[in-house]
Amino acid sequence: MTRGVACSVEQGTGALTVGDSVEIGIAVDIPEPWGGLLTRRRRESGDPSVVPAHVTLLGPTEIPVAALPPVERHLARVAAAHLPFRLHLRGTGTFRPVTQVVFVAVAAGISECELLAAAIGAAPQLRRELRFPYHPHVTVAQDVAPEALDRAYEDLADFSAMFEVDHFTLFSHSGQARWQPRRDFQLGG
Question: Rounded to two decimals, what is the model's pTM?
């Protein structure tokens, strides 16, 4: 959540005005046709999230707005140091009973996501205490009725998608508008 009244995101641009802090997140977007399908399935489960389907590399993290330029320089270095890779999504999994989440599993590309997440989180501005160990996945239902979790788990059990990941995206959130893409970082420079 953003602190300070002067920080806002211009609709559709991801541009920020000066203020105290901003919430950011970093993710690999799921391309079409799979991204739209998984986003729609999440909405159909009753999940109020309006976040497009993605694999999180850094969850929501509040940083000072002044830290954005050094964070972006760090992300550019991380992206340049990692090569594009193939991501294979296959089947479903769940974190129940610990959390009420059903997800599409990452079958290949796990170590690449883990290495990217660790490198991204190494920036002093991005270090934070994690509640759970990092586990790359695509959430398709969260904090909804048990029946909706079961349905998402069963309906997507045979899901499979394979695609090249050649970039990750920095998102920002003003606290008022939905998450906005701020900048893509191309892997391999």
Answer: 0.85
Inside any domain, residue 133? yes
What spatial distance separates the first Cα and last Cα of the chain, rounded to whole Å? 31
Q: What is the domain range of residue 158?
A: 21-186
Res 20: pLDDT: 87
Determine contact, residues 25/174, Cβ cutoff 8 Å. Answer: no
Task: Give the residue carrying structure tokens 């490198």.
Answer: 119
Q: What are the pLDDT digits (tens) for 32-56? A: 999 999 999 999 999 887 789 999 9
Question: Cα-flanking dihedrals φ and ψ of residue 19, to 5°?
Answer: -165, -165
Q: Residue 167 maps to which CATH number?
A: 3.90.1140.10
Number of domains in the chain: 1
Q: How many CB atoms lie within 10 A of CB 102?
A: 28
For the four alpha carbons of 78, 83, 87 and 93, in that order, the dihedral sign comes to negative
Distance CA 42, CA 132 (A): 22
Q: Can you tell me the distance from the alpha carbon of 167 to that of 29, in angstroms, rounded to the nearest whole number?
A: 9
Q: Is residue 42 part of a domain?
A: yes
pLDDT value, residue 128: 73
Q: Give a yes or no: residue 134 inside a domain.
A: yes
Burial class (CB in 10 A: 0-12, 13-18, 19+), 176: exposed
